[in-house]
Amino acid sequence: MKENKKMEKAKAENFDWPNLGFNYYDLPYSFHAEYKDGKWDEGKLTSDSTIKMSEAANVLHYGQEAFEGLKAYRRKDGGLNLFRPDMNAKRLHNSAERLLMAPFPEDRFVEAVKMVVKANQNFVPPYGSGATLYIRPFIIGTGEVIGVHPADKFQFHILVTPVGPYYKGGMKPTEYVTSPYDRAAHGGTGQSKVSGNYAASLLPGSLAHKNGYSDVVYLDPRLHENIEELGGANFFGITKDGKFKTPKSPSILPSITKKSLLQIADSFGMEPEETTISIYDLDQFSEAGAMGTAAVISPVGSITHNGNKHVFYSETEVGPYTQKLYDRLSGIQDGDQKGPDGWQVDVPLK
Ligand SMILES: Cc1ncc(COP(=O)(O)O)c(C=O)c1O
Q1: Which of 89, 223, 297, 307 has a CB 3.0–4.6 Å from the CB of 106, allowing a cystine?
Q2: CA–CA separation, 17 vs 58, rounded Å?
């Protein structure tokens, strides 16, 4: 059984790096740690990419699961960069606390990410291919429950898989549509990266795709009037006088890409602001975009709301501010440009 499993593992020489999609491949190593009797064990690399747990594990019934998403980028000199992994460590800590799970220590999180990336280094796509190694750390409640209670045992895993761009077509604008559904409640778990939010987003996402849109625009869950975020990314708009605006709301995911772009926009003199953005006030923007680890920066060509389609800069071309923000952000992530202190974290390969 073990031998067969090993044979199914991906081989680096079989990848067509420039044509990768956003799919899972079973790579040689994952990271695995366990929490019981009030503490996390040492954790270790493992070649077993399956998880064994009780049928009564909390995660299977009451959804104790929190996760992260970050990438390893191949630099021109062949080395590898992570982008602000300490922020992912912190957000996972916050998400775990929201679901009453034992947080994995933040400093050990970054070390574990480095360890699993180094072990799978042959699977980090080459510089210039547009592809990266996606890193998915997650915590699950494995303690047995039958009533609605938090687990007392947890597992922390990190899987990695090589990915191409999330939105096919890269820097081409795509079409979005507002949804009558909410992904998270006001006062709910929108700020946390927890699986329940994504389960709730599957139906609205699939309806949008069926109707030819690339993703959903969620509106605020109370008034259904203000933009919250996109299916898997935060939203930004560039005003006609070149200012960067992004929604402020308690029910959106605090995106690390967004935090970084607020700082980059400030360095460009774009007077960034987190503020309320009404779906009825899109005329103020000359450009709009999606921002996130997977999306990087992707131009939003149009938003359709109640059957009315609003086109931003162009349905076919990326606008100049969006391009400028993308060039700076991806320049830092790929290691071609020096970023602010702490943004580029080297993964030692020796
Ligand atoms: C719902 C949602 N919003 C925003 C983001 C962007 O967050 P980040 O920039 O930290 O990747 C993500 C994840 O990538 C997401 O799933």
Answers
A1: 89
A2: 38
